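Q: Here's a chain of 115 amino acids. Please give me its 3D structure as tokens.
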Amino acid sequence: MIGEERAEFERAYQHALAEAADSLDLTRVLDVLRAYRRIAWLTRQQGLQAHRRMLDKAATILRTGQHTDAVSNEQVQALIEERLGQQPVDQVIQAHTALDQIAARRPGPPRTPAS
């Protein structure tokens, strides 16, 4: 974790421990550990610099409401279709749906409940 996150973790953890001491319930402690474990894992996967850039970008988006690197759904779909070199995604989905409907009408062995 980066410095600010580490400090936030320590504050949240100490607060959760104090709550647990009063209530004898560790739920909040476990919630804090679970949340910051994810952050630590993400930081390790990305590397410190990439994690810092991600946090800075998120802060900018929250502050300005603008995401300058965003692309539309249509652009993403076109890129997927280009990379796959296949039919448009909607046609692929329709084909799979039709195959599922055919398979559902086909007689087969009776299904038994899972035990």
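Q: Can you summarize the key feature?
A: DSSP finds five helices and no strands in the chain.
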